[in-house]
Amino acid sequence: MNITKKINKIMAELERCYSLRVFEGNDPYRVLIRTILSQRTRDENTDQASALLFSKHQTIEEIAGADVEDLELLIHRAGFYHVKARRIKMVSLILLDDYDGVVPDDVDELLNLPGVGRKTANCVMVYGFKKPAVCVDVHVHRISNRLGLVDTKYPEQTEIELMKVVPKYYWIELNDLLVQFGQTICRPVSPLHDECPISEWCDYYRDMIQ
Q: Which CATH code is given to the segment(s) 24-129?
């Protein structure tokens, strides 16, 4: 099957199965901080740490002015909290000093911030600004390879290859739909093949049943 036709079928089915979600009201700053917290931890840990952090410190000024030790206690559930607390405080200070407290809507500018890699920058573009970008986390990397859309070892490679084959009009919703699919069906261990709505287009499933 033609790769574009395959992607169209997969995306249509995922759009039917899942609704697009809103994270932190789609505020670019909160999306940025939440995505930094999400690094190397589970989704539920990110949700809890982010909710606790913003329940106490609701603005960039409050986080920039908070003690690192206080931030560590609030985000402890996210793991690597010593590093992440320093990063979110430093990022907040830089945004206040250099950008008047406004998160830049430019990937290259975002990449200059401490702790911000391509995944984080692209997630801010998608969820914070609703601008097309390919945000590759562990779910997108795993599922894209299982489906046979890419054949890559690293998320950075997956981003490049997905940009080549996935039509740009899918980029904004791609991460959200694949994350939900990865959380519910295409899990890292013991994926639910019998419940999978897109198994007929999945190379991983086809190879498994042969």
A: 1.10.340.30
pLDDT for res 209:
87
Gap between the Cα atoms of 104 and 7, Å rounded: 31
pLDDT at 24: 55
Sign of CA dihedral 128, 103, 125, 57: negative
3-20+134-209 CATH fold: Endonuclease Iii, domain 2 (1.10.1670)
Residue 209 CA from chain centroid, whole number: 31
153, two tokens? 């070892």
Question: Which tens digit of pLDDT belongs to each residue from 21-68?
Answer: 866 568 999 999 999 999 999 989 999 999 999 999 999 999 999 999
- State which residues of the chain have pLDDT below 70: 22-25
Burial (Cβ within 10 Å: 0-12, 13-18, ≥19) of residue 138: middle
3-state secondary structure of 188: coil
User: What does pTM read for this prediction?
Assistant: 0.92
The alpha-helical segments, DSSP class H, found in 38-186 are: 43-56, 60-65, 68-75, 81-99, 107-111, 118-123, 129, 138-147, 155-165, 171-184
Q: Which of 9, 45, 4, 20 minimizes the C-alpha distance to 179?
A: 20
Domain boundaries along the sequence of the chain: 3-20+134-209, 24-129
DSSP structure class, residue 125: I
**Tokens 């809507």 — which residue?**
105
- Answer yes or no: same fold for 3-20+134-209 and 24-129: no
